[in-house]
Structures are given as structure tokens and as C-alpha cells.
Amino acid sequence: MHKKLALLHMKPEKADLAKNRRILENALDKAAEHQVDWLITPELCTSGYCFDNEIGHSWISPQPDRWTTLFLNRAGQAGICLFLACPEQDRESGRYYNSVLVFEPGFGIRGRHRKIAVQKGFESWSSKGETAKPILCQGVRVGVIICADAWYEEIPLGLKEQGAQIFISPAAWPPEPYSPYPCWESITRKTGLPLVICNRTGQEDDLPFYTSESLVMKDGRKLAAYASEEPALLTINWDFESMQPLDSDFCRISI
Question: Which residues form the CN hydrolase domain (predicted)?
């Protein structure tokens, strides 16, 4: 099975929900034009990473809300599976989470992952997710890990034990002061699974993301990578039988 993956190396605007939604809608249209099968977004792409110190978090609602429902419907019409990283409120407990919704056309939301390795400070609004389980998407068992979830090896190793075939990781992870590369290299070596990381660019507060990399890694080696001040839609053709890219690097599409 061959699929075209797209990573949205985005520049989210802190607390500007309307602008971020427009960016996402434009990226979805671009993905449809380029016949993308899976579209992956970076961590907290709808709100920006540092939103809480500007607009708080009482506005966060259970997902999918009205805009998300319309956005998923558009993805469904385009035949695109979507990994949408957004804040959400649990309908029953009222708690807030840093989440990823996994959407498949014809099936709706196949599952969601709530970040377990929640960081102090900018993420203090979020409760910790309790479990990580593979999510089935087009017959593939996907292990979703959000950014620092990769730092704690028991999370990806547990997903591998449960049958995950590939890791998808929406992230907002600058290379300093805590480099992600050692943990990314380690988990791909220990599990033998490929890791697809959708990172971001821009800056929020004192966090510069301009050199943050979106990449594909397997067995501790980078197979494709991109870092730039310029946001882009990064596509790569993927063979799900060999779990290898069919291209030597990303194709970059301006957004």
C-alpha cells in the first residue's frame, strides 16, 4: 500500500484562532490539489503553543466543535486522513487536554491521543493523558505520540508492544535547550518502527522554533528532514508494506 503523506510545517500564531484556522483550511486545499492521503499537523496548531497566558483556556470545548466538524467534513470530501493536533475538553470530566484527533474518511474520528508527558509552564492548563493505544487508520496501526511523549520511552515502547506499525508525532519542539534527537534516535532503534515528526516554525514568547525540524526517521537515521523560517507543506510518498519512504526527501510546497 502506497500513500502520500503531508506534514504541515506551520507557523501557528499564538492565540489567533481565526488566523490558524485559515492557515489550516488553505493547507487542506493544497493537500487536496496534490492528492495527499494523510495530512499531519504540528502540536496545538489551532491555538499556538503559548496561548494560555494570553487568552486562557476556558474557551476550549469538547471536540469536534463546530469548526472542527466542518474541517473534518472537508477532509472527508477530499479523501484525506487527518491528524489534527488541538486542545480539547473532556465532555464528562470537564478537564482539558493537549490532543490529536485521528480522522479517516468514511469512518469519522477513529481515535484520539491525549498527551501524557505534559510540560510545566506553557502546558499547565492541560491534564495528563492516561493511556496510549494504537489507532487504526486505513488498516495501519498508528502509534500517536505528542512531542515530549517521545522523551519517555515507555510510551512508544508500549505502543510497539500493542502492535503499532508506525509512529506519528505532532510536535512543537525546538532543538534547544533539550534536544529531541537522542530520544528520537533511541526509540526508532529500539522499536524498529519509523517515526514521522511534524514540527513547526516561528516563535512564541521566548521559544524560537525557526530551526525545529520536521523529519522522517528509522533505525536512528534521518530519511528526510526540513527546517526553515518559511512554513511549508512537506509531502513524501510512503510504502506501508516496507515501511520506507519512496522518495529521498520531502517535496516542499509553499503555503
Answer: 3-240
